[in-house]
Amino acid sequence: MKHYYLIVLLLLCGCHKGKGQNANSIFVKTFTPQQLRQDIDYVHDSLAKKQPNLYWYISRAKLDYKFDSLKNAIDTPLTAPQFRIKLLHVLSSIGDGHLSLLLNEPKIPPADMLFLMVTKRIPYNSWHIRSSMANCTF
């Protein structure tokens, strides 16, 4: 009987997930300046190809300058949320109220997604994710 309690105790301790920072957390994992510059180029090229009336409220020269300034300003590694804020400053200068920068939810760890929902840092309601994560324990 003592062995049974010992085994149950070891299983419970082994299955417990700590509350420390996870290395895969979007708030901890950083990206190199080179990776971030590649992402900036990708966003800039995608907007130029796919966004109708991109230069309606801002001239091409000003928008190019803003993207170049952002690329030059990034000289240290950043986390995804830090980079997102910097990129949103440039995207807001386009003046299109329908343009948004959504999170890639499948790539966000569940613990981070729960934190974003609880602190209301997700700009839209995602009831499917909320209901599927209701029974998660971290």
Summarize the structure in words.
- This protein has 138 residues and is mainly α.
- Helices cover 54% and strands 3% of the residues.
- It has a two-stranded antiparallel ribbon with strand order 1-2.
How is the secondary structure organized here?
Layout: H1 2-15, E1 30-31, H2 33-50, H3 60-73, E2 78-79, H4 80-92, H5 110-118, H6 127-132
Antiparallel strand pairs: 1-2
Helix pairs in contact: 2-3
Give a nutshell description of this structure:
With 138 residues, the chain is an all-alpha fold. The chain contains 6 helices and 2 strands.
What's the gyration radius in Å?
21 Å
Instruction: Give the overall pLDDT as a whole number.
Output: 75
Taken as a percent bin, the fraction of beta residues is under 5%
SS elements, strand count: 2
End-to-end CA span: 30 Å
- Poorly predicted runs of 5 or more residues: 124-138
Question: Which tags fit this structure?
Answer:
mainly alpha; single chain; 2 strands; 6 helices; 138 residues; 54% helix
